[in-house]
Design brief:
single chain, about 325 residues, alpha+beta, 434 Repressor (Amino-terminal Domain), six-stranded antiparallel sheet, four-stranded antiparallel sheet, 12 strands, elongated
Length: about 325
Amino acid sequence: MSDQKQEIAELLKMQRENLGLSIDDIYEHTRINPEFIKVLEAGQFDLLPVAYARLFLKTYAQALNLNVRDILILFERSVALSRDRVIVQPPPERGINRSAIFISLLVFAVIVVGIIIFNSLEEAPLTAPLDTTTSPLTIPDSTETVIPPEQISISEKEMLPEMQDSAKSVQEMQLRDSTGSVMPSSLATRTSGDTDIVAETPTFQTAPAVLSTYNLPIPGGIAEGEMMTLSGVARETVHLSITADGRGVFAGVLPVGQQQRWLANDRFQVEIPRAGSTSLSLQNQPLEFSSPPDRGLRLTIFRTLIKVEELGDTPSVPQIGR
């Protein structure tokens, strides 16, 4: 492994561990396949096509708040160094192929004999009339030309569909980040029990009125450069709506007992129909609210404080599309 690859791999893994994030956390935030994240942290970039490796490195570095330009410069140097080390093997020296010489002489002899016979037939008189009838032309069955497959190793063939899926998910997430659009309903958020919960946008019949507003401090505080981590456990089956940095990350049903985690850089916004239906924690510190358990809440969680809005009416049950 080159020094550049080793430096990139150690930098990625060290920054992720310093932020207290797991590989699954990075997957939830970037949609990069966990297997490819392990490949990046091992510095085994040669297992991925250059275009995919460059895309995954850029996305991963952005998620870890690293200098993307420096990471890509190191990567390009490692790619150029790998190309310079390719050794072209000279073709092996071939000895005299006696079989080929014999076959060539035999073909030459057949041609000479054929010419002699053809000339003798032209000089001989015709003894029978020519048959002017022609037989139907027989078209031989065409055979398919087999095109040899691309020179791709078995492991790369197996990995190619997953790389394409990860790259597509990464590009969709980057597009949503740039446009501020809501996550499409076809994406699913993974739970701690490996149960897929479809993230869909519910439609409420009426918007509840805001009765009162108060602020809460952030328990324990959040260090500069540290990603915000919000987790929730449903005390009862509940409909939640959550955005991270203005991007929708969950909108749907959270079953009782299920736990979810979300990541953000600057802020979360959470809508809960009943304050007592869900237990929330920020940076692994539980959040306590002074609102009645049956009161609906809208929370805007910044890095320095939490804005709590008490809602007058519990929103009606949304129509979840499939």
